[in-house]
């Protein structure tokens, strides 16, 4: 089971929108049931990321992350989304 942390400024608004899009994308790519997504505020991300396989964030991330990071803004804007999706797949399939 892969663990994904999805962070935004407050852990509520944009992370919820992105979580749905990421979940739909992963399910469509054969990963249904193989991951969990936990939302949090970016201030909590470093501590939570120590046990995660991936952090996706819609805001600036602090230095020192112990796991791979993918920019979540493309899931809000649509620009650069295919590249972000590819990064996610590459990280989760390791």
Automatic annotation (TrEMBL):
Domain of life (superkingdom): Bacteria
Alphabetical keyword list: Sugar transport, Transferase, Transport
Gene Ontology MF terms: transferase activity
Transferase listed as a keyword: yes
Pfam short name (any one): PTS_IIB
UniProt cross-references to PROSITE patterns, sorted A to Z: PTS_EIIB_TYPE_2 (PS51099)
InterPro entries per UniProt: PTS_EIIB-like_sf (IPR036095), PTS_EIIB_2 (IPR013011), PTS_EIIB_2/3 (IPR003501)
Boundaries of every PTS EIIB type-2 domain copy: 1-94
EC number: 2.7.1.-
Family annotation (Gene3D superfamilies): 3.40.50.2300
Protein name stated in the entry: PTS sugar transporter subunit IIB
Organism: Enorma phocaeensis
